[in-house]
From TrEMBL:
Species the sequence originates in: Thermodesulfobium acidiphilum
Source domain of life: Bacteria
Keyword annotations of the record: Lyase
Family matches, as InterPro entries: Pyrv/PenolPyrv_kinase-like_dom, Pyrv_kinase-like_dom_sf
Listed name of the protein: Methylisocitrate lyase
Single GO MF descriptor: lyase activity
Length: 67
């Protein structure tokens, strides 16, 4: 059995759903995220991944300063 076409977004949605499911179950079971550290992004690394430093640069450039 083979496939002649694959929809790339579908496997990523399934992977994300499984990660959410497993993470939420672990949080429920433990009541803490201490056992999830090997499966989650550190705060600064996540900020970099989503482009937060660039957003902050744009804010500095275009938003008025708070005084």
């Amino acid at each position: 059995m083979g496939f002649s076409r694959i929809s790339v977004p579908v496997p990523t949605i399934y992977a994300a759903a499984k990660a959410l499911y497993e993470t939420l179950n672990q949080l429920y079971k433990d009541g803490t995220n201490k056992n999830l550290q090997d499966r989650i992004f550190p705060f600064q690394e996540f900020n970099k991944l989503i482009g937060f430093p660039e957003i902050r640069d744009l804010e500095k450039k275009f938003l008025p300063e708070n005084k």
